[in-house]
Amino acid sequence: MLLRTGNDARVYSYAMPLLHAGNNDHYRSVRTRYETTYSVGITCTYEHIKADLRSQHSEKPNAATFVFEIDMPIPHIETFMPLAKQLVYDHIAGAA
After folding, report:
1. CA–CA gap between residue 74 and residue 72 (Å, rounded)
2. Which tens digit of pLDDT belongs to each residue from 39-51?
3. Can you give the pTM of this predicted structure?
4. Structurally, how many domains does the chain consist of?
């Protein structure tokens, strides 16, 4: 996932593990891990970032990438990240 605010794009890896809650109930959640930050501009596009990440992480040669952009100053962890996680969850869960 790439979360862009201004010129900075923070990169997070994500996974959706299946959680067992007992009584045969199963749930999924989006777990993220911060990887790095890129400065987005003319010479550093999302395609460049994805190619760079692909070369650094050969075990994930063509991982699904989601980009979220916002121009409003909102709290990153408290607001932006939960919104992005919910959109990823809805997209992936809807496709399953």
Report:
1. 6
2. 999 999 999 998 8
3. 0.81
4. 1
